[in-house]
TrEMBL record:
Stored Gene3D superfamilies: NADP-dependent oxidoreductase domain (3.20.20.100)
InterPro entries associated with the record: AKR2_Oxidoreductase, NAD(P)_OxRdtase_dom_sf, NADP_OxRdtase_dom
Protein name: Aldo/keto reductase
NADP-dependent oxidoreductase domain location: 15-294
CDD domains xrefs: AKR_AKR11C1
Domain of life: Bacteria
Amino acid sequence: MQTRRLGNSDLYVSEIGFGCMSLGTDKDRAKRMLHEAQDNGVNFFDTADLYDQGRNEELVGEAFAGRRSEVLIATKVGNRFEPGVQGWTWDPSPTYIRSAVEQSLRRLRTDYIDLYQLHGGTMADPFEDIVDTLEDLQTRGYIRAYGISSIRPNVILRYLTASNISSVMMQYSLLDRRPAEWFDDIAAHGVSVIARGPLARGLLSGATTGKKLAADETYLDKTAAEVALVQSAVEDLTTPERSASQVSIQYALYPEVVATTIPGASTPAQLLENINAASAAQLTETDIDALNAKSPASQYAQHRS
């Protein structure tokens, strides 16, 4: 598994990471999946304090308690929850961030977090105070780097121009090409993209195992017929040596600004198929052009100023 540098940080992340939200809450199963991923070359594991109200972080922490120096752990902050109470509220205040990082460190069984990400963001947030807090946590060694997880162009541009973020996590796939509009800006600031959702909720996983939309359903701004056209284009590039899922993952990894993509997996077979996208026959520029021709890029309609 090759690695790519995350922004200007000293973190080198595996091209295929593991999106841990899909782990569930069974400890033994989660441990097996996480160890299987690491044993097959994955070093980047992304979780969040919100997932299962901290349980996801606990499972990651337990799995890697004896392997901490071998992996890079990313988590997120900003969605405040009360244990046992359904729902959450947005709280990016410095006071909450400082409290939340302590809780994440405890659940993850570690004294540092490799990548700490603001789990959202609005233009109404106390921007300077947030950045100062994250910078202080980095200086004090609680975190090694920080980033944001956001699809809001105005928030992304704000952090690009006035902070030292290393990464922007964005939903990016052949069915959601909206982030591509901002890739040049992100790259120009020495920041990397973490591509989540490369399989578009299973719609890009293949004719046999992938999902299909009903005739009256949509995915974002695409009709069922338009989604089917994209699915067909992916199938056209599958071979005995490269599955539809692997085509889709490679598509998300193709832009240079993307450091890693983090598909989730609910079974060991899915996990290995995702990981093997890194070694499968690579897509060419011609392949990428053919895929793009079947899925015209859209733009974010909101949060642009």
